[in-house]
Amino acid sequence: MSYVITLLVAVVGIALGWSARWLYAKFKLTSIEQKAARLDAEAVKEAEAKKNELVLETRKQLLDEQRQQEREARERQNELQRTERRLQDKEEALEKKQGEVENTKKQLGDRENALNDREKALSDREDSLTSELERIASMTADEAKNAIMAQMQDAARHDAQVEINKIEAEAQLTADKKARDIIVSSIQRLASEVTGDTTVSSVSLPSDEMKGRIIGREGRNIRTLETLTGVDIIIDDTPEAVVISCFDPVRREIARVSLERLVQDGRIHPARIEEVVTKVTKEIARVVMDQGETVVFDLGIGNMSQEAIRALGRLYFRTSYGQSVLNHSKEVAILAGMIAKEVGADSQLAMRAGLLHDIGKGIESESDQNHAELGADLAKRLGEDPKVVNAILAHHNDVEPETVEAVIVQIADAISASRPGARRETIDNYIKRLESLEKIAKGFDGVDNAFAIQAGRELRIMVNNEKVNDEQAKDIARKIAERIEAELRYPGRIKVTIIRETRVVEYAR
């Protein structure tokens, strides 16, 4: 009996277990189906959102493309309108020109008719004059015709000469104005510093006791320094200062720097002096090269030899009438380049010739050649363009300029040298030079008066028209210029102008 009950209990337990599992499985299936349905709904919603987003993006792209097309259409329309306006303007200009051509044709036709009428009138007059001449002078028709033709040819030549003189005067006036405009514009565009120097330099000393150390025992120190540098060292009563004098600015600079270093160092004896001078000489040589390379680089001039750069660098320490020769050469190069561009010449060639025109002043030579000849020889030896060589040689009229660039260099050199403040000169020398100019001119027979004007750059001379004719005036001008060149020293060039005029005075009573 208990076995049966146990079996029943087991069967019932098994049945309850299967029921519970079936119920759990059914519940889980239901949960999964709900989750699937929920996921399906979310997927549908997400797909709808993606779809809506794609639709909006597509609409935006279409709208942007539509706007872009509209903008391009407007631009094409504006371009078409501008083209149409240009064509319309050209059409109006052509119509205007056509009208001007028609007016010109009409004027030419009227002028031709007038000339025909005049020719007819002249022919009639010629016939009447021929008859009158035959009647009065008993001349044949051919003789009368030849006489009239000769008279008409003389009148035509006179009218033609008057017209030629008028055209030449107008052309000269225009050319002078254009030249003045170019030169004034070049001067205004050039901004450069004006420097001055003398033939002496001063070195400050910490005390007057240093003067004795500079002189040394029996003067050996100062003698060694003067021998090594080639300068004169002046030690006088000037307190705490020593003066260095030398015409060569490079040697004077070497002596000045060397003496300053010796004073600062305190060790002053012949061996130390020689050591310092040697070192300073090398430093100044580097400065010379640096200055030459700097000016060449600033002007953008290439393919310059080392020897030419060294000669240019020496101009940094060289002065002429108080004007730095290197700065003057740089000014001339800039001015020559400006003027060459204005007149359509070769600006690079003009700049190179302007920079090298005074290079002869930086050459150490004992020959009797002037600086233009020395510079031309150096340029020729270094393979410079023959046009540059000619410009160097011609900038003081030693030879005739062969190119327009050579003439431009002459002009630029005169501008740089003669502009106010560029060069320095004592008032006594200045007045003496003006007096000498007038004295030379007044020493010639037939000269009534002479005036040095434009700061001594022009000598204006009045001659007696009864004693001096035109040919004699030219000869006097040439001789005065030759005497000025032979007897005076002056910067730039001096223009000699002779004025000869005839005055007739009559009174109506």
SSE inventory with pairings:
Blueprint (H helix, E strand, L loop, with lengths): L1 H136 L3 H49 L10 E5 L4 H7 L4 H10 L2 E3 L6 E5 L3 H17 L4 H30 L6 H9 L4 E2 L2 E2 H19 L3 H10 L14 H11 L4 H9 L9 H15 L8 H16 L4 E7 L4 E6 L6 H18 L7 E5 L10
Parallel strand pairs: 7-8
Antiparallel strand pairs: 1-3, 2-3, 4-5, 6-7
Helix pairs in contact: 1-2, 2-8, 4-6, 5-6, 6-7, 8-9, 8-12, 9-11, 9-12, 10-11, 11-12
Uncertain parts: 187-198, 419-427
Spatial order of strands in the largest sheet: 1-3-2
**Which H/E pattern describes the elements?**
HHEHHEEHHHEEHHHHHHEEHE
How much helical structure, as a percent, in the residues?
55-70%
Task: Explain the overall architecture.
- By secondary structure, the protein is mainly α.
- It is built from 14 helices and 8 strands.
- The strands form 3 sheets. The protein has a 3-stranded antiparallel sheet, covered by helices on one side. The protein has a 3-stranded mixed sheet with strand order 6-7-8, covered by helices on one side.
- Helix 14 links the parallel strand 7 and strand 8.
- Helix 2 packs across helix 8, helix 6 crosses helix 7 and helix 10 packs antiparallel against helix 11.
- It starts with a helix and ends in a 10-residue tail after the last strand.
- About 4% of the residues have low confidence.
